[in-house]
Amino acid sequence: MKKLKTLGVLLICLIVNISCSDNDSNVELSDKQNLTKKTWTFDKFKFLDSSNNNGKYTSEDFQNKVNTLYNSLTMEFNDSGKGTLKSNSSQLIKNFTWKLTDNKLEMTLPNPNEATDDVVTYNITINNSQLALTMTEELVIFINGDELNVRGLQYYK
């Protein structure tokens, strides 16, 4: 049964407002240092855009479903190029690998429904307290068996 293809793909179609667990420094750091020094906590998800929706999901429907399933989602990036996604509400824990090249962040997440991993690439803008990710290509997610092609911006704060 196809639900959300992976959490990484789900995140593509969302605007995310998050809070940082560590806001104690105004020192200019590299993008990698800024990314790895915090645990990013996702507070709110907002639906963006999709095709093949056929009017089945309004932004409110989608947002409510995602907020219920993935409340208090946290993301950690460590220095070795590995990371973890955790969700308190659904007991979800996913490990991923990542690499940062110039302003491109690539995350590779295991896909439980297919043999190949999901690779998601974002344009990244980051400073000490804010992280903005813009998806670079359209991907497919599944909600209650319905296929949606999604493209959008993610924003963490």
UniProtKB/TrEMBL annotation:
Which keywords appear in this protein's UniProt record, sorted alphabetically? Answer: Signal
Q: What is this protein called?
A: Lipocalin-like domain-containing protein
The record lists the organism as: Tenacibaculum aiptasiae
Judging by the UniProt lineage, the source's domain of life is Bacteria
Keyword Signal belongs to the record: yes
Position of the signal peptide: 1-21
